[in-house]
Specification:
Layout lengths: L26 H9 L3 H17 L9 E3 L6 H8 L2 H4 L8 E2 L3 H9 L5 E5 H10 L4 E6 L2 E2 L1 E6 L12 E4 L5 H12 L3 E3 L11 E6 L2 H9 L5 E5 L2 H8 L2 E6 L10 E6 H6 L1 H20 L1 H8 L12 H8 L4 H7 L12 E2 L6 H12 L8 H5 L2 H7 L4 H9 L21
Parallel strand pairs: 1-2, 1-3, 7-9, 7-10, 8-9
Antiparallel strand pairs: 3-12, 4-12, 5-13, 6-10, 6-11
Helix pairs in contact: 1-5, 2-5, 3-11, 8-9, 9-13, 11-18, 12-13, 15-17
Length: 416
């Protein structure tokens, strides 16, 4: 039987210690997030959120963006830079850059930020694992991730007996990597770094994305699967190569999702609509202005939103060399006609349902019992509120403006 978001469910995956990267989850991070499932621990943050909600009355609430410095945050940063929120009659504050998912989750719960991007499996854990009433209102982007390996590895099967890094357990990266491993007769395991592995075993270690390039260069891992621009960075430095794009395994999958608190949606629906309007317009602008978007996010750009150089961001956002990957055989499904990263805001229910099913067959560490009780169709209805994004999409010309069929439904295609 499916339980509501208020049911007690916990998940505390084991992860490694990580430095001050922009996007990894350390062991301490997961303990901090996991502890939020305990009412006593979460109470101070919830009280802070309630106090903020009392102060933020009406629709004249500033947009407080929380983000990590990765290409996943592009629509939020584009909307801020191009003053798309202001065009909707909203006030904004300078987006807050966070150094870990734990920090951004805690700030979100406490009401310090009210518009965030979170990885799709993480939204499930937050609502049903930590019981915080978060709601997905739109997709933030499509694809944008890859499996990058050492230059002497030419196939997934060659990863047998080796170590591969993932950013954390509740990620689309972990799900797709394990799908690839199973399709190639390999088994995902989680063992100490110096453990002996069977030829058909692949040891998964959680590593901060900012550490992945150096780990590959030092041969401490044979590869990693993560969001860009870390894959592009390894390519540009000549340290590794892309073996598969995640979007070439799960067609047009969502990676990060636009997430608001259920409280904000209930108390100020017009505010939520305007926020969604701005983000949908930002996605459309980004889709049609790829190089300009890379310049906007670059370390030397006007906003200085990320620490990444323009050539690395342009390799991801402009995707001028995607045809080369097809010719080299990296892209297996040429008929899918995808970009390295793309933008389409509608949260298809079929994706959420398939995500829940996929997580049930994915190895994760910690207490994942909430997944056993979570029904796919229920999650698609309960986690996602698509009222606002439907209106926003219609305002910009419908789904066709994003290069997808007009129907608000689709069939998921997963082909490792």
């Amino acid at each position: 039987m499916t339980r509501s978001a208020s049911d007690p469910r916990r998940s505390r995956p084991h992860v490694c210690a990580a430095p001050d990267c922009g996007c990894g989850i350390t062991r301490r991070d997961w303990l901090r997030i996991g502890s939020l499932a305990a009412a006593g621990t979460a109470a101070p943050l919830l009280r802070a959120g309630d106090a903020r909600a009392q102060a933020d009355k009406g629709d004249d609430v500033p947009v407080r963006i929380g983000y990590l410095p990765i290409t996943d945050a592009t629509p939020l940063l584009v909307a801020h830079s191009r003053k798309l929120f202001e065009a909707e009659g909203l006030r904004t504050e300078r987006p807050r850059l966070f150094r870990s998912w734990a920090q951004i989750v805690e700030a979100f719960i406490a009401g310090q930020v009210n518009v965030v991007h979170l990885l799709s499996p993480t939204t499930l854990w937050i609502r049903y694992g930590s019981q915080f009433p978060a709601k997905v209102v739109a997709w933030n982007h499509l694809s944008g991730s890859a499996l990058t390996v050492a230059k002497n590895i030419d196939s997934v099967s060659q990863l047998g007996g080796k170590t591969v890094a993932i950013p954390f357990w509740y990620s689309i990266h972990n799900i797709v990597l394990q799908q690839l491993l199973r399709a190639n007769g390999l088994q995902a395991v989680s063992r100490p770094r110096n453990a002996t592995l069977a030829p058909n075993e692949v040891n998964l270690v959680v590593l901060a994305p900012a550490e992945m390039v150096s780990a590959l260069a030092s041969h401490s891992v044979a590869g990693y699967i993560v969001a860009d621009p870390f894959n592009a960075a390894a390519e540009n430095l000549g340290i590794g190569k892309v073996l598969r794009f995640v979007g070439d395994v799960w067609k047009n999958h969502a990676c990060c999702l636009v997430t608001l608190s259920e409280r904000d949606i209930a108390q100020r629906p017009q505010w939520a609509q305007r926020v969604t309007n701005a983000l949908v317009k930002a996605q459309l602008w980004t889709r049609n202005n790829q190089l300009e978007s890379a310049k906007l996010l670059a370390a030397d750009g006007e906003g200085r939103y990320t620490p990444h150089p323009l050539p690395v961001l342009a390799k991801v956002l402009a995707a001028t060399d995607y045809a080369g990957y097809e010719q080299a055989g990296v892209v297996k499904h040429k008929g899918w006609y995808q970009r390295r990263i793309d933008f389409q805001p509608y949260p298809y229910p079929s994706y959420t349902e398939e995500l829940v099913r996929a997580l049930k067959t994915t190895k994760v560490e910690g207490d994942a019992r909430f997944l056993e009780r979570l029904e796919p169709a229920f999650a698609a209805r309960d986690l996602v509120d698509d009222r606002f994004v439907r209106k926003s999409i219609e305002q910009v010309g419908g789904l066709a403006a994003f290069g997808v069929p007009a129907a608000f439904s689709r069939q998921e295609v997963v082909a490792p």
